[in-house]
From TrEMBL:
<protein>
    <recommendedName>
        <fullName>transaldolase</fullName>
        <ecNumber>2.2.1.2</ecNumber>
    </recommendedName>
</protein>
<dbReference type="GO" id="GO:0004801">
    <property type="term" value="F:transaldolase activity"/>
</dbReference>
<comment type="similarity">
    <text>Belongs to the transaldolase family. Type 1 subfamily.</text>
</comment>
<dbReference type="InterPro" id="IPR004730">
    <property type="entry name" value="Transaldolase_1"/>
</dbReference>
<dbReference type="Pfam" id="PF00923">
    <property type="entry name" value="TAL_FSA"/>
</dbReference>
<comment type="pathway">
    <text>Carbohydrate degradation; pentose phosphate pathway; D-glyceraldehyde 3-phosphate and beta-D-fructose 6-phosphate from D-ribose 5-phosphate and D-xylulose 5-phosphate (non-oxidative stage): step 2/3.</text>
</comment>
<dbReference type="GO" id="GO:0005737">
    <property type="term" value="C:cytoplasm"/>
</dbReference>
<dbReference type="InterPro" id="IPR001585">
    <property type="entry name" value="TAL/FSA"/>
</dbReference>
<keyword id="KW-0704">Schiff base</keyword>
<dbReference type="GO" id="GO:0005975">
    <property type="term" value="P:carbohydrate metabolic process"/>
</dbReference>
<keyword id="KW-0963">Cytoplasm</keyword>
<dbReference type="InterPro" id="IPR013785">
    <property type="entry name" value="Aldolase_TIM"/>
</dbReference>
<keyword id="KW-0570">Pentose shunt</keyword>
<dbReference type="GO" id="GO:0006098">
    <property type="term" value="P:pentose-phosphate shunt"/>
</dbReference>
Length: 398
């Protein structure tokens, strides 16, 4: 998911002056990636129903946004920097790409959170430069995440270093470190999720963390095998990127899972969300399913009933501006439901207890390539954050 941060000319503080010029000029834009989603308890408590609602002065009609919100929790593809008043997020993700954006925006409200991280005495005292930069990175993520929890009512998901994606124990140690830092600033674990890549090692880490009561958010899911394994691991949130799978299918071939969906006349990204939803609900897994990279209103209409749909601002705006009168020809209906999931038939091969070998064998070229691409992108962003922190440390007055 992406959003744009426009930088207007301003007087930079000493901390960020060198960073701003090294990233972009003052008229440049950043393309950042983040994820927003709702508190898992909203299904059970109507007072916490945080689904987006578009107000209407005409009591005889409703907007399309109102109509679709009756079936799924529609999540704005943005963070508080962008269109906050129009589509205020109820929860957020703090990530390496977000830190890059903060470093390039000297007037952002999160500036102090990063400054405090770079001035932290615990990190400051570490002699090894790599360890010190990692400490600064963790502190900055948590400081910004802590500020986020004061601005949104739902959960904040914190990115776990993608460079650890193939090391289960390193992922768990990183989450424990982040959780300790959140505890130090009095953010309760119920407000937090930890965003982990859906490698086998990441899925195993999620299993162990969930057994401790730590909520996880598995991302980069591009195959049914990953989704099913994540559900079996008890991940709190499973995120599938609809549009990215579609884009891959347009330019590649020889992926059995994608070709099977196409032979049935289905879009492969939408088909994966539906299949994963049916699996989760038919077999009673606790996971919530999130459809991301939704590109248009038809995608959204096709997924009504899935737990969360992340929609671009242009789609939300179109839904908000479109009136859905009671007698209109188009009928908004749930495409996914626990009732329909109960009727879905899975093959014996799909109902295995997933392990590393079966997962590796079941992941087709689309999932392998898209997962690798996602990990490379996240790792590159993390490296850039540490490089920037290395350039601006020590901060003034330290």
């Amino acid at each position: 998911m992406s959003f744009t941060l426009k930088i207007t000319p301003s007087v930079s503080t000493p901390l960020f002056s060198s960073v701003s010029s090294s990233i972009h000029s003052t008229k440049s834009t950043f393309s950042l990636h983040s994820t927003l989603f709702f508190n898992s308890q909203i299904h059970h408590n109507p007072l916490h129903h945080l689904q987006i609602r578009a107000s209407s002065t005409d009591t005889a009609s409703t907007t399309e946004l109102d109509a679709v919100s009756a079936f799924s929790h529609i999540v704005p593809d943005t963070v508080i920097f962008d269109d906050f008043q129009k589509f205020p997020p109820t929860a957020a993700t703090v990530s390496s790409s977000l830190l890059l954006g903060i470093c390039g925006l000297p007037d952002t409200i999160f500036r102090n959170a990063v400054e405090m991280a770079l001035a932290d005495s615990e990190c400051y005292g570490l002699e090894n430069s790599d360890t010190r930069l990692s400490c600064f990175f963790n502190k900055a993520l948590v400081n910004v995440g802590g500020d986020m929890t004061k601005l949104v009512p739902g959960r904040v998901s914190t990115e776990v270093d993608a460079r650890l994606a193939y090391d289960t124990h390193a992922i768990i140690r990183k989450v424990h470190d982040l959780l300790r830092l959140y505890n130090d600033i009095n953010v309760p674990p119920q407000r937090l999720l930890f965003k982990i890549p859906a490698t086998w090692q990441g899925i195993e880490a999620a299993r162990l963390l969930e057994s401790e009561g730590i909520q996880t958010h598995l991302t980069f899911v591009y195959s049914f095998a990953q989704a099913a394994a994540a559900a079996q691991a008890g991940a709190s949130v499973i995120q599938i990127f609809v549009g990215r799978i579609r884009d891959w299918a347009r330019n590649h071939s020889d992926d059995p899972e994608i070709e099977s969906a196409q032979l049935r006349g289905e879009d492969p990204g939408l088909a994966l969300v539906k299949k994963a939803y049916n699996y989760i609900h038919k077999y009673g897994h606790k996971s919530k399913l999130m459809a991301a990279a939704v590109r248009n209103k038809q995608d959204l209409f096709s997924l009504l009933g899935v737990d969360y749909i992340i929609a671009p601002l242009k789609v939300l705006q179109s839904l908000k501006e479109s009136v859905a009168s009671p007698d209109e020809k188009y009928s908004f209906v749930s495409r996914l439901s626990p009732q329909s999931a109960a009727k879905y038939v899975f093959s014996d091969e799909e109902l295995v207890e997933w392990n590393q070998t079966s997962l590796t064998e079941a992941m087709g070229p689309a999932a392998v390539q898209l997962l690798a691409s996602g990990l490379d992108g996240y790792a590159s962003q993390a490296n850039r954050v540490e490089e920037l922190f290395g350039k601006i440390w020590p901060p003034p007055n330290v």
